[in-house]
Amino acid sequence: MCGIVGLHLRDATLHPQLGALLSGMLDAMCDRGPDSAGMAVYGDPTWSPEGESTVSLLDSPIPATDLAQQLGVALSAPVTGHDLDPTIVLHAPVATDVLTAAVRSVVPTARIIGFGDHLTVLKGMGNPTELADRFGLRSASGWQGVAHTRMATESAVTAEGSHPFAVGPDQCLVHNGSFSNHMSIKHELERSGVSFDSENDTEVGARYVAKQLAEGVDLEKALLMLNETFDGFYTLLVSTSDSFAVVRDAIACKPAIIAETDRWVAMASEYRALAKLPGIDTARIFEPEPEEVYVWHRQ
């Protein structure tokens, strides 16, 4: 069943409230996916400081503080580690590809679940509200956030299997539904050199979109291509550092609602997740049309 929430802030005065607003939205969706959850925040100054790259990972055999020290020696640069059990967040004043390569070298068995110049991804198993509180999501700030409550259908209940799937730089994809032809697409992507970390059908969608973006396709076109390629029933929320997009399949049986004001754009699986947002009474509220791609860009 799963629950999706996302918030794109147009008004910079709301940035300090991002985590609190997103937490409230996520809490309203707990019963749609009580087994695990994930969330992504763009622009938090503690987790993703300006001028530094950030990597989020699971299953590190080395504690966050020790890992940061080892990476600092390897990179000859200061590395900060945050222990947000079970997620570790690392950031350093080096390029994203340099930090991710160092992480893979020092802890090759760890699972990188997010990376970029602005993005922090947090995942865990259990009640979504309790996870958000443990991570300290309510105190986060930034310009954009997405979150997902999972009711597993396509793969095991693990932190790794939680959404969002963040497989490209500063990119996230969350998904309610299922892709029926994902295995054939996965094999095609593997033949082109794409590697996978899980058996989750959502990862196939995320890898597909990331490949199109890496090849220079814009986000709207990439999602139109996904609609033409993937079969199944789905609602997707896809984010990058400067974009926020929603798309549904041709049948559109998976619920979705969008609200928009001059100060923000929000999306959720149900209206109750939007009901307490500031200014909701005057928002433009609508259900996204089948196969139409809706994209908002950061100004």
TrEMBL record:
The lineage of its organism: Bacteria, Bacillati, Actinomycetota, Actinomycetes, Mycobacteriales. PANTHER family: GLUCOSAMINE--FRUCTOSE-6-PHOSPHATE AMINOTRANSFERASE, ISOMERIZING (PTHR10937). InterPro entries: GATase_2_dom, Ntn_hydrolases_N. Its EC number is 2.6.1.16. Gene3D superfamilies: Glutamine Phosphoribosylpyrophosphate, subunit 1, domain 1. Residues 2-299 form the Glutamine amidotransferase type-2 domain. The keyword Transferase applies. This is glutamine--fructose-6-phosphate transaminase (isomerizing). GO terms for molecular function: glutamine-fructose-6-phosphate transaminase (isomerizing) activity. It catalyses: D-fructose 6-phosphate + L-glutamine = D-glucosamine 6-phosphate + L-glutamate. It comes from Mycolicibacterium hodleri. It is an enzyme of class 2 (transferase). It comes from the Bacteria. Keywords: Glutamine amidotransferase, Transferase.
